[in-house]
């Protein structure tokens, strides 16, 4: 359940900002610009619609009349988009309604447009705009005349020899008259600022009420935004990009002027909407699962929603999601529920990033442990054997040269095997080793390591580098590595045949041994190692085949799709 904190401030509290508050508020001048443009825009809209409707009615007996009336209906929606852009001068953002759903064709569009309530609300705004803007102009022009007369009184007093003649009356301004006029002009200036502020709020509420999409369309827009946000979180490739996209989705699907995502320390993670300085938070953030909405001192609203992480994350505080609304645009409970869902998605993205970081650290620990075992079992043993061989050669150098040569040969073989084993370890540790050296080089190093370390005879039929993409190349190396490991661990073989060939659209890699073999049927779907190899093969678009008989050795064949020169598989 969503609990909204922060009751709306009383009107007197919201409107009272001091005598100069409205005069210094930038929103006042935005309202003045809107009122200045509303009259010519309203006149142009009224003229276009009137001409289209009257022209259609007059020419209705002929075919042209129907075209005029259809054009008038289209103009209602098209000019509504112009009104939505114009009302953005007031700091309010009104989303453009989606195209009416219905069957295709002209008749389908006509029926859907006539059945859409937004069409009639937009038409009502067009009808109201011209007379209402005319009233605003008359009021503001009257106040402007008083300001010019009053604030220009000093210039009049400086040239007092010129009287003011009105019929039979002749007026010469005195000092008291000038002071009174200046006071009236200053008062008219302050009153004009307050009147413009009221007009701005009036036009804002009127525009939101008549030009904004209906509730069902807003709900559809929020559902689409949540679906995209969920997909972005599931992708989770870049945390900063994910948080920026979530903020953008929240702004696009809401009526807020701007939406920002802040870290627990107050730093800004992402922001979408109007640029500029954000209002400072006036009160502490809400509790998890709650949304707070507070009136801003200069007008407008600030909604604050918590970004909550699961308990397993170690901390529940993931920061806050804040949405800034203009005066007269207080968010509804449904919109706050949508924003709270976006905040939950942000918490999920942050938690997923933490899990990925932990998994990476854990994988690093496991890789270091594996490397330690490999070094102990291979390189360390090779170095120990080299030490023994060198000591034996030194002890027999003078009394038994033949044995010395045998010891040196043994030492050299161990050294070569240690080098090959070290190269194989480097290939397995460096993810770019395959890209730099290629699959053939990696398998060659691994074959040398098997000969030196385990005394196997390896016949490698490794020809030209196969045409595989990087993912298939990595999968091929891992599968062959696992197959050779199984030979050493289970087969008790003396000889291994390793081959790579490509023909047509396929690349075939095989490992054959002369070991004791096994019964594949008795093992069902195979061991964990076989399942891992099959999964790697399937992930690269290929398949794995294992054939064996007791006492007849085993053959592991991996078939992968070849990347053709034209780029296809």
From TrEMBL:
GO MF entries: phosphorelay sensor kinase activity; protein dimerization activity
Transmembrane segments: 31-53, 60-80, 100-120, 132-156, 176-196
CDD domains named in the record: HATPase_UhpB-NarQ-NarX-like
Keywords of this entry: Kinase, Membrane, Transferase, Transmembrane, Transmembrane helix, Two-component regulatory system
InterPro entries noted in UniProt: HATPase_C_sf, HATPase_dom, His_kinase_dom, Put_sensor_dom, Sensor_HK_TwoCompSys, Sig_transdc_His_kin_sub3_dim/P
GO cellular component: membrane
Domain Histidine kinase per the UniProt entry, residue ranges: 478-564
UniProt cross-references to SMART domains, sorted A to Z: HATPase_c
Protein name stated in the entry: Histidine kinase
């Amino acid at each position: 359940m969503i609990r909204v904190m922060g009751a709306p401030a009383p009107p007197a509290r919201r409107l009272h900002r001091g005598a100069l508050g409205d005069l210094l508020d930038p929103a006042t001048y935005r309202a003045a610009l809107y009122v200045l443009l509303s009259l010519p825009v309203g006149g142009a809209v009224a003229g276009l619609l009137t001409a289209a409707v009257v022209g259609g009615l007059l020419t209705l007996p002929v075919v042209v009349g129907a075209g005029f009336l259809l054009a008038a209906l289209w103009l209602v929606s098209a000019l509504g988009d112009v009104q939505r852009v114009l009302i953005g001068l007031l700091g309010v953002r009104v989303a453009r309604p989606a195209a009416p759903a219905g069957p295709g064709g002209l008749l389908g569009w006509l029926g859907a447009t006539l059945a859409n309530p937004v069409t009639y609300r937009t038409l009502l705004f067009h009808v109201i705009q011209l007379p209402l803007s005319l009233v605003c102009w008359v009021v503001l022009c009257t106040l402007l005349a008083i300001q010019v007369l009053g604030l220009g009184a000093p210039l009049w007093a400086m040239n007092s020899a010129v009287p003011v003649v009105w019929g039979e009356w002749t007026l010469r301004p005195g000092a008291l008259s000038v002071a009174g006029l200046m006071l009236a002009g200053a008062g008219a200036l302050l009153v004009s600022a307050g009147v413009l502020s009221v007009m701005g709020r009036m036009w804002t509420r009127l525009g939101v009420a008549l030009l904004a999409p209906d509730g069902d369309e807003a709900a559809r827009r929020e559902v689409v935004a949540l679906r995209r946000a969920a997909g972005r979180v599931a992708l989770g490739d870049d945390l900063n990009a994910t948080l920026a996209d979530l903020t953008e989705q929240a702004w696009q699907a809401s009526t807020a002027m701007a939406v920002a995502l802040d870290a627990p320390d107050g730093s800004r993670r992402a922001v979408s909407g109007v640029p500029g300085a954000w209002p400072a938070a006036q009160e502490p953030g809400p509790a998890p699962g709650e949304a707070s909405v507070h009136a801003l001192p200069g007008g407008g609203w600030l909604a604050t929603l918590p970004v909550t992480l699961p308990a397993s994350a170690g901390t529940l505080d993931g920061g806050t999601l804040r949405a800034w609304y203009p005066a007269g645009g207080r968010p509804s409970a449904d919109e706050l529920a949508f924003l709270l869902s976006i905040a939950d998605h942000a918490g999920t993205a942050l938690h997923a990033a933490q899990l990925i970081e932990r998994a990476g650290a854990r994988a690093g620990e496991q890789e270091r442990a594996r490397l330690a075992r490999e070094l102990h079992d291979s390189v360390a043993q090779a170095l120990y054997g080299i030490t023994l061989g060198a000591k034996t050669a030194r002890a027999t150098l003078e009394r038994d040269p033949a044995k010395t040569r045998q010891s040196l040969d043994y030492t050299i073989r161990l050294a070569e095997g240690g080098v090959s084993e070290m190269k194989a370890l480097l290939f397995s540790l460096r993810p770019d080793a395959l890209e730099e050296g290629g699959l053939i080089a990696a398998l060659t190093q691994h074959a040398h390591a098997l000969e030196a370390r385990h005394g196997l005879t390896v016949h490698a039929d490794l020809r030209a580098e196969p045409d595989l993409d990087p993912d298939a190349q990595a999968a091929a190396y891992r599968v062959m590595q696992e197959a050779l490991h199984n030979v050493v661990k289970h087969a008790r073989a003396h000889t291994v045949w390793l081959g790579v060939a490509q023909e047509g659209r396929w690349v075939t890699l095989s490992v054959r041994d002369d070991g004791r073999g096994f019964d594949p049927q008795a093992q069902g779907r195979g061991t964990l190692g076989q399942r891992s190899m099959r999964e790697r093969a399937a992930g690269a678009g290929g398949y794995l085949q294992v054939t064996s008989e007791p006492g007849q050795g085993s053959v592991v064949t991996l078939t992968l799709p070849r990347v053709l020169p034209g780029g296809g598989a």
